[in-house]
User: Fold these one by one.
Assistant:
Number 1:
Amino acid sequence: MTEPHENRYETSRGLQDSTELLQRISNRLADKFAGIFAAETVERYVFESYTALARTAKISAYLPATTEHFANDRLNALAKSKGAVASEVPEVLFVCVQNAGRSQMAAALLTVEAKGRIKVRSAGSLPAAELDPAVVTAMAEMGLDLTKDYPKPLTDDVVRASDVVITMGCGDSCPIYPGKRYEDWDLPDPADQPLETVRDIRDRIHDRVKTLTASLLTQETTLP
């Protein structure tokens, strides 16, 4: 007769532990963004980010780290979009449906090509639970480790902060704001494809990324 009570205790204890952990994350980020955002705003972003990631996360042990990373990036994006902080480099957002293949490869490749001169993000309109294993393998062949990356939901703040938004097969799910550069890259989805096909998609993305990098950095150097 004691087992149901024990299960209820374990469940409530787990929820309490999560809340305490999220509060500690909120406190750290509130210190980081002091003078930019109220502590209540930071806390809301942390708890919203946790809830969004928890919907698809396969391994809950990673949630605290991914929540802090995701909330921090969203708060940085919000600060930039509100003019609270200045961005000295162009910001690019790659969006696909699951954020498990094309957008992750594009983000990793642009990060390498840009060498810190472009801020890169990726997101998914319906994020998967994890990256496609064939995508991870294909990128590892180029020396790029995606094992610590995770699918992220598309949020309004990262779209607002971006100078360039590149969509890949996600239709009209990405909000449109004036003054931004939008491109749609018509590329096949690597999901459930053999490694050889994924390699081909990777290489096609790489070609486009090189062109994008050149155009953004050339534009940056010609600005007064």
Number 2:
Amino acid sequence: MNIEYRNLLPNESKAYRAIRLESLEKFPESFGANYLEALKTEKFRIENDIENQSLERFVFGAFVDQKLIGICAFVKDENSTGNIYQMYVREGFQGKNIGSGLIQAIINEAHSRFKGIEVVLEVTPKNDRAYHLYKKMGFQEVIDEKNSASNIVMKYFT
């Protein structure tokens, strides 16, 4: 299976929306958003980011035969930190290292756009598969006193 990892293009925002809604419906415990509420949202902020190709906010996709099978978003903060959000791979493609390919593509792109940037993410405590993937990729847990949520904060170390 040949996987292509790349930045989503403006005309792919609807494909992003479909896979994002799928992720919220199938794995509600893994994300900080609600599927039913998301259905009511006319356009997600990240859809606008995809359509407008923001330097500091981008989404990579994993494609098989030009079909979107995975997504991962990156948002740069005002400082030298960037956050990974919405990592998801469709069920039939999970367990094939596609998630690690997406994460690595996002990290590489972030480092090429922003020299010296720190990459962080959050994972829900019960999402063991994602937690172990991130650990395998080089992320380590960090203590974040500002984080009022119960998520685990992880930072990427090269």
Number 3:
Amino acid sequence: MTQVRTDTQPMHADLIPSRRDTAGRFALLPLRIFLGVTFLYAGLDKLTSSGFMQDTGPGSIGETMRAVRDSSAVPALVDLALKNPVGFGYGIAFAELAVGLGTLIGLLGRLAAVGGALISLSLWLTVSWATTPYYYGNDLIYLMAWVPLVLAGAPMLSADAVLRVRRRRRAGEYR
């Protein structure tokens, strides 16, 4: 006796991604774009601000660090920054640029996300630690926003994805 298929799905329907599958694959993209643009902007804002990269003065990195020193969770981090506030300011600005750019283009996505998480953690423990209630401080929120990207990297629409495909193709050529 011949078996007759009674289902209405094509034989390889599981190979065609559903809208839900597609949405799931792209779910981190808006977060990546937001964090990448935000960190790029933060780095550029620091570098182009006339008063930020100063040891003293209103809005300067030095004055900001001195103002938060006694209320921070880790005053030793602030003391370290105060040894050379301008150098620290440039370091943070260039780190934010690297993290933002790496996140946006998806190059070394997990490493960029770890960098963003570490910047956010250090800012939470120093600058916004005394913010009450705690959820008003944006650095903790940024830290939590980096966690999914630390875990997943930049799997879609990224330089990492392009490089991964190239590596797989090359590995297939040498078998």
Number 4:
Amino acid sequence: MPNTWSRIFPGQAWQVAEARHFVAALLEGEAAGLVDDAVLVVGELAANAVRHSRSGWYRGWFLVIVGFTDDFVRIQVVDQGSDSEPMVRSVNAPLEQSGRGLMLVSAYAKDWGVKDRPAGGRCVWAELARVGV
């Protein structure tokens, strides 16, 4: 199997589910917990790309990249950038329905981060530990 797989998705909300299916298919045969965590992480990152970046604009797109090493799976979501920086937000009210995406990513990932891309986009990445591989 190649070490890295990628797929570009139209920047539409319903494509977030397609990104989750893409990652789940790539992780077939991995530990169930890793698959669940990876699907959650890519879902949050892709939803953020569509909701909070230019990827959600007309003719927008986002790119999902999944890389494998012996120790971890690295998930990257490249979006078309925005004027605000992605950050973990504090949730002040328990009934708020949004704002927890990067908090969840940071809880499930071994490490995660954000890097700006030279062409104006942004990449948010997360590494998930592979156990028993």
